[in-house]
Write a structure and sequence with these properties.
The protein has one domain (2-49). The chain is 0% helix and 46% strand. The protein contains no helices and five strands. It has strands at 2-7, 10-16, 20-23, 28-31, 48-49. It has a three-stranded antiparallel β-sheet with strand order 4-3-5, with no helix packed on it.
Amino acid sequence: MHLKVLVPREVFVDTNVIKIVAEAENSSFYLLPHHINFLAALVPGILSYT
């Protein structure tokens, strides 16, 4: 699974991952391999990935 985190002027993270845990405007979520493509606006908080 591939994670790309964009900030206004650059690509902050661009790497392969096994699991993603993040916080969006309405709740926290996690993604595992073979999940559908997903785009979300993140809020300030903890973003973790393995």
